[in-house]
UniProtKB/TrEMBL annotation:
It comes from the Bacteria. Belongs to the peptidase A31 family. GO terms for biological process: protein processing. It comes from Desulfofustis glycolicus DSM 9705. This is Hydrogenase maturation protease. SUPFAM superfamilies: HybD-like. It holds the Pfam family HycI. InterPro entries: Pept_HybD-like_dom_sf, Peptidase_A31. One of its GO terms (molecular function) is aspartic-type endopeptidase activity. Keywords: Aspartyl protease, Hydrolase, Protease.
């Protein structure tokens, strides 16, 4: 990784549809508990769709945290690279808003401004009922996904510091 590489950590999802909000909750957890260098930017992407393009276009690498619609145990964690998406190894409709994200990435490519690297860290939802709370199965996965994302950043040479109790927001 080049030291000036700009890395975006994007949590997407709808926080009023139960586990669908997982990505947003995970980014909030990371932001509240860790300090990141200036070249790493966290974003609550919610269900912003096309409005995510400025964020995506300014990043060299984007780590997306989301739910994934696959036939697997609720709460199971899954990792996908941009190569997996291109190769059709995963459904491009990973969640109700995901198709929008992938379309936005295609628009960024047309503008020759897409991130060079894309990674998805996902969890299989248990409940997509109307609720602002994560299910008992998915909620504990926030810390697991956070550990995976932090380990990935460390592999890339990024130094992250855990906030002290006084710094936790």
């Amino acid at each position: 990784m080049k030291s000036e590489e700009k890395i975006g950590i994007l949590g997407v999802g709808n926080t009023i549809v139960g586990d669908e909000g997982f990505g947003v909750h995970a980014v909030s957890y990371l932001d509240s508990n860790f300090l990141f260098p200036d070249n790493v930017r966290l974003m609550d992407g919610g269900t912003a769709g096309i409005f995510l393009s400025p964020f995506l276009e300014e990043c060299d690498r984007v780590i997306v945290i989301d739910v994934v619609d696959v036939d697997a145990e609720p709460g199971s964690l899954h990792y996908y690279s941009s190569e997996d998406v291109k190769a059709g190894k995963i459904s491009t409709r990973m969640s109700p808003h995901q198709l929008g994200l992938l379309e936005v990435l295609e628009i960024c490519k047309l503008r020759d401004a897409a991130p060079q690297h894309l990674e998805f860290y996902c969890v299989v939802p248990k409940s997509l009922e109307a609720s602002t709370e994560l299910s008992d199965v998915v909620a504990p996965k926030i810390k697991e996904i956070a550990r995976l994302v932090l380990a990935r950043l460390e592999e890339l040479g990024i130094q992250i510091r855990q906030r002290s109790p006084e710094e936790i927001v």
